[in-house]
Amino acid sequence: MLGNNYENLFGYIKYFENDNLEFYKWQSTKREDGVITMSYPVYDKKLREFIQDVYDSGIMLNDYQSLVSSDISTGDDAIILINNTDNSEKLRALLTYFVRQERFSEGSWAEAANKRIFLSILLKLKSMGEEC
User: Record's InterPro entries (predicted)?
Assistant: First the structure.
């Protein structure tokens, strides 16, 4: 089932626990003609690998918005929701939400990494063990 896919993702727990890591840097460029581009996040290679592994894992949910979007307005709301749920489907929906948000709001992965949202989801799923 999904067990092996979770185990692969659980391998990132130590990465997200590292307090000394820069998950991203904001970058902008100035062209020769003096035009400065809008800043954008440049993500750490390991964070990009994690995101790809989430996509490849098969655990993302297509209907994630119906499960979580009304519950989240900030990253802090997400942490509270993660800590208060024992529903693996809701946790999968939260993970899907934060992975897919990047395309709508640059920097969403940065927020999820810095506020330990990815870490909290992984730890909660791992603590649930066989229920996943």
Answer: DUF6508
pLDDT at 1: 45
Helix (H, G, I), strand (E, B), or coil: what is residue 98? helix
φ and ψ at residue 126, rounded to 5 degrees? -65, -40
CA gap 45, 49 in Å, rounded? 6
Q: Which domain holds residue 101?
A: 3-131
Which residue type sits at 97? Y
**For residue 39, which of 47, 48, 30 has the smallest C-alpha distance?**
30
pLDDT above 90 covers a percentage of the chain that reads: 58
At 7, the amino acid letter reads: E
As for how many domains the chain has, the answer is 1
pLDDT digits (tens, 9 = 90+) for 29-44: 777 787 777 788 899 9
- Residue 131: strand, helix, or coil: helix
